[in-house]
Design a protein that fits this description.
The protein is α/β, with parallel strands linked by helices and 210 residues long. The chain has 8 helices and 5 strands, in the order βαβααβααβααβα. α3 packs parallel to α5. The structure holds thymidine-5'-phosphate.
Amino acid sequence: MRAGRFITLEGIEGAGKSTVARIVCDWLEARSIPVRLTREPGGTPLAERVRRVVLERGDEGLSPVTETLLMFSARGIHVENLIRPSLARGEWVVCDRFTDATRAYQGSGRGVDAQWIEGLASAVHRDLVPDCTLLLDLPPTVGLARARRRSGLAADRFEAEAEAFFHKVRAGYLELARREPHRIRVIDAAAELVGVERQVVHVLEGLLEP
Ligand code: TMP
């Protein structure tokens, strides 16, 4: 059996990842491709517990380095218990965020050393690299307004950040896409939904080509 493919979705808050995840899963399922939708941080019961620790706003602070370690702890659990087994069964894994999020948020956003992040990435998931990453790109002003309308006072530790933080995160993502244009496909997420869908389907069709 051919191993499944690994597709990740990235972008700042309010970029529409959940909507695009639905589009991707529906498109694959319509072609009888087995799909597993999951997310990071989280994706398994244990990793979801780490998610709560890292996202909840509390009185106790988390340094950027500790935050990075927690992201990779959750990722290690998720890769071992869900992502690799699903791929081995031939499923296509659609994952809402993966290591590019750590590069963009902790690396570019918080200033954590990029080489140290790469060291952790290879320790935690070795050769596991997404076959394709859809980077949903839009201006932070637009994304944050959407995200804050949705979560209001319940904003998590990241949504509570100032807009300047998301400019750095967005720039980090775009730099990653510039370096790996074949893997990371930039989608204009400020477009109308039909336009976003058209761009996403175009990328998916390319993935199915022999
Ligand atoms: P989301 O489920 O809305 O995408 O929220 C997850 C938050 O966690 C989001 O603000 C991005 C952040 N995050 C990181 O900072 N680093 C990471 O490695 C991951 C996976 C998420």
